[in-house]
Specification:
single chain; 7-stranded antiparallel beta sheet; 28% helix
């Protein structure tokens, strides 16, 4: 007699064409009690048939349309309802859960506010983030993603709560439209029933202005204000208590938490009502438009603000005070009653010029050849001072005659020798350009880190005044990207640099003494804790008010865009760090991933060793068995590394994601090739 297999209970019946067996399914009810149901099934029964049997057995009248089967052991959804149990590989030992696909999730936004909303746990994260952004009215969802914070992110906050006399209840904005509905989240009025955005057919912009987005959305006007306007600053106690990254290694650990965009929340172990961070992951902010992007611009400003205040990105004390002045100005305007009009046309008109300068143009975007006559590329020629750091030699600058042409700088002993051979010619394509400026001290320097075969050559240039610095700095920035001064972005770049220098210019002759006495400013709200400890409160107020005079005439949106621009001008902007071990190396290094390049950085000192630009990349792949990323560049340059602080899939997705974003163009009408994104970022494990 044949023995019944251990994994199945065989039933003989003339009603079944093939052998059947018992399948146990847990049913997830809204009352949080799970019910176990036994079904008699056969291997040729499809998933849809299993769910139909299940609903008939449960005998509860309700909308089951959002429910699907989750396979616990395999950690996967059974969403292909036409597949049979045999094809899926489901046998009697399978633990299945019949559960809603949409569940509640708490998201900490860049402005540190928490929203609670219903999110798809079965869709891949890329699609889930897209739906979240539609609910929150944030365009360009491909720039954002979900980050699972490290264990100690909320640890200090919890310790602090225990010491308080009363428990601190987190202020959560609940965007659940109906507690008893398990369907997909409510979609804002901007989107039609087909989930496609509606646009003006002429210029491709959204067909409605920002406020009309909220007509059918869980976002009321009050809730919209929470997301689109800067909230009152946190107390100094809360600020001091928040988690701060101290080193590159700490930053690398924090970046390990990015979720895999090609897998669902459930597949990555995210629990219902868990708290995640919604952040701008890719630092390429495309098509910022204040008329339609009130929430997006504010959240971007808030992410930049917290990065500055919590010292997640380094800046000089002079720059810190500029950021503080802009924060103070934005805080004042945000609390003012007359600012609450989203569609103020005059304000939009006022910042059109600034916006055209502030918009980040992506490297890899199609160049407008009509604007560049390659037969007549502009040049710069002037006296500058040069210094090359060497061991045991004091920092002494020496003057030379410099000529900037195409993407290279040549320098000569004097102007008369310009037609001869230069002392040296520096090719800036792919170099790192770092500002070395102190406006108060009349110091206008440019630090160049130029890639060579064995590392980076360090060169310092010193300019005499603001205008000279702006012209040469803009030329260096464009040359590092492989662009010349004939490019249409050169003049806007010069104006951006001059604008930032003007904000740094101290008005020491202007009276601020009376303002100090009359202000209710708490300066510790606007600067990093380390900066606050270095100065007395009155000194900080005086310096912030002094810097504020340079920005006092800006409108609210312009001030936010200026803050974002100043953030983008910092040397470390847009660099995400990971701890890696390069092939052939005996020590760990830091890998910096930016929107246009990879940077190898010495972990102990933070000094860049070498740079590789995406523009020179030929191919990259991942050896999933040994978790190693290998990349090939032009001129037979190849690198390989294993990731130590995160899974190699996280770094692989970052590289592919930036390459994907570089393919965006305004004529795409915001429709993204999601398949291309997954091809570039998904990988094959």
């Amino acid at each position: 007699m044949q023995q019944t297999p251990a994994f199945a209970t065989m039933l003989s019946s003339s009603d079944f064409a093939s052998a059947s067996w018992d399948l146990m399914v847990q049913v997830d009810h809204l009352n949080e009690e799970q019910e176990e149901v036994k079904l008699s099934v056969s291997g040729d029964l499809h998933i849809g048939g299993v769910m139909l049997k299940l609903v008939e057995r449960i005998k509860i009248t309700r909308d089951w349309s959002d429910f699907a089967l989750w396979w616990e052991q395999k950690q996967c959804w059974l969403l292909k309802t036409h597949w049979t149990l045999d094809k899926c590989g489901v046998q009697a030992d399978a633990k299945l859960l019949f559960t809603p696909q949409h569940k509640m999730l708490r998201l900490r936004l860049p402005n540190m506010k928490t929203v609670r909303l219903r999110v798809s746990f079965s869709a891949v994260v890329f699609k889930a983030v897209s739906d979240i952004c539609k609910t929150l009215n944030i365009r360009r969802s491909e720039e954002l993603s979900l980050l699972k914070p490290s264990d100690d992110y909320f640890k200090k906050k919890k310790k602090k709560d225990k010491n308080n006399k009363e428990p601190v209840n987190e202020d959560v904005l609940n965007l659940e439209s109906s507690p008893k509905t398990s369907g997909p989240p409510v979609v804002p009025g901007l989107y039609s029933n087909t989930m496609m955005p509606m646009y003006d057919p002429v210029n491709g912009t959204p067909a409605s202005s920002t406020m009309t987005w909220f007509s059918d959305s869980p976002l009321t006007e009050q809730n919209c204000s929470i997301l689109a306007f800067s909230q009152p600053p946190q107390s100094t106690e809360v600020l001091a208590d928040m988690y701060q990254c101290r080193s590159l290694v700490d930053k690398a650990k924090l970046n390990a938490g990015w979720l895999d965009s090609s897998r669902s929340l459930m597949e990555q172990g995210i629990q219902e009502d868990e708290q995640l961070l919604l952040r701008f992951k890719y630092y390429t902010f495309f098509d910022l438009n204040p008329k339609y992007d009130a929430v997006r611009i504010n959240q971007l400003y808030e992410q930049a603000r917290w990065a500055i205040v919590l010292e997640e990105i380094d800046c000089t004390e002079e720059e810190m005070l500029i950021f503080a002045a802009l924060q103070y100005h934005i805080s004042k305007l945000s609390s003012s009653a007359e600012i609450q009009d989203f569609t103020n046309e005059s304000e939009v008109d006022e910042i059109e010029a600034a916006l055209s300068n502030l918009e980040v143009t992506l490297e890899g975007e199609k160049a407008d050849n009509t604007l560049e006559d390659i037969t007549d590329i502009p040049t710069l020629a002037d006296n500058l001072k040069l210094f090359r750091p060497k061991k045991l030699i004091l920092k002494a600058f020496k003057q030379y005659w410099f000529v900037f042409k195409d993407t290279s700088i040549a320098y000569f002993k004097n102007q008369e020798l310009e037609q001869g051979e230069p002392i040296e010619k520096l090719n800036l394509r792919g170099c790192e350009v770092v500002p070395d400026v102190n406006v108060a001290g009349r110091k206008f320097g440019i630090k160049l880190l130029i890639p060579v075969a064995d590392g980076m050559n360090e060169v310092y240039l010193r300019c005499d005044h603001e205008n000279q610095y702006a012209q040469w700095m803009a030329a260096c920035i464009l040359a590092s990207k492989g662009k010349t001064m004939a490019d249409s972005s050169y003049q806007p770049e010069v104006l951006n640099i001059l604008s930032f220098l003007k904000m740094k210019n101290r008005n020491s002759t202007s009276p601020v003494a009376s303002s100090i006495e009359n202000t209710d400013m708490n300066p510790e709200w606007f600067v990093s804790p380390r900066c606050a400890k270095k100065h007395k409160s009155k000194q900080l107020i005086a310096r912030i008010l002094e810097a504020h005079q340079n920005v006092a005439q800006m409108s609210l949106v312009e001030a936010k865009l200026r803050f974002i621009q100043a953030w983008q001008s910092l040397p470390e902007f847009g660099v995400t760090y990971y701890l890696v071990r390069f092939k052939g190396s005996k020590k760990d290094d830091i890998l910096g991933v930016s929107y246009n390049r990879l940077i190898r950085i010495e972990a102990a000192t933070g000094i860049p060793i070498t740079t590789w630009r995406f523009a020179n990349m030929k191919q990259w792949n991942v050896n999933w068995e040994i978790r190693q990323v290998a990349i090939e560049f032009d001129q037979n340059v190849s690198i390989a590394f294993t990731c130590l602080s995160a899974d190699c899939k996280v770094v692989h997705e970052y590289i592919g994601g930036y390459i994907f974003l570089s393919t965006r163009a305004k004529d795409q009408n915001e429709t993204l090739d999601e398949d291309l994104f997954h091809k570039l970022t998904g990988g094959q494990e």
